[in-house]
Specification:
By secondary structure, the chain is α/β, with parallel strands linked by helices. About 25% of the residues lie in helices and about 30% in strands. The longest helix has 29 residues. It starts with 9 loop residues before the first helix and ends in a 14-residue tail after the last strand.
């Protein structure tokens, strides 16, 4: 039979635990510091519009991008985008402006609301209402009953009405803000 006897000294145990705690704390501090300073993006956002040369907006992400740009305009100034819609003019905007619009389906009865970006184009006076176009432009800060994004159009081409002419609300948290008559 083999018997092993350990003598436990309370002063030595306390010293051992203290040294172990200090070593673990130092290792944790070093790892945390390395992660903080080596991260390329310490603060990230989950915005719809990534920053690249020209971002193409599709029917499936149209309203998500529209919402993200309106809510965080400062993050998107200077971003170039390309998207399609129809010319929609309202009487109280400048003659060089129009809304590049899409019809957003808001319920199962196919009722729609007009949504879109306010655009600025030198020759917009010659664009006919309801003409479908594809534009490439740059997001700028503008004013229309408050601060909103305005797309400064760099190129424009007329297109046929797409098969996916309708868009859908940005997400499940969408709340209808207008009254249907």
């Amino acid at each position: 039979m083999f018997i092993c006897n350990f003598k436990i000294n309370s002063k030595n145990i306390f010293k051992f635990i203290l040294v172990a705690a200090i070593i673990v704390s130092v290792i944790f501090f070093i790892i945390s510091t390395i992660r903080i300073f080596s991260a390329s993006n310490v603060f990230t956002t989950n915005d719809e519009l990534p920053q690249k040369d020209v971002y193409v907006i599709s029917s499936s992400n149209y309203t998500n991008v529209l919402k993200a740009v309106h809510e965080n305009l400062g993050n998107y100034i200077g971003q170039k985008i390309e998207f399609e819609g129809y010319v929609y003019k309202v009487p109280d905007i400048d003659s060089k402006q129009f809304i590049l619009a899409r019809d957003m389906i808001i319920n199962s009865n196919l009722q729609t609301l007009v949504v879109g970006f306010l655009c600025e184009y030198e020759d917009s006076i010659n664009l006919s209402e309801k003409t479908w176009i594809r534009v490439t432009g740059e997001i700028q800060k503008g004013d229309y009953n408050g601060e909103i994004p305005i797309i400064k159009i760099m190129s424009l081409e007329k297109i046929d009405k797409p098969s996916d002419e309708y868009v859908y609300p940005p997400d499940s948290a969408y709340l209808q803000t207008s009254v249907l008559l």
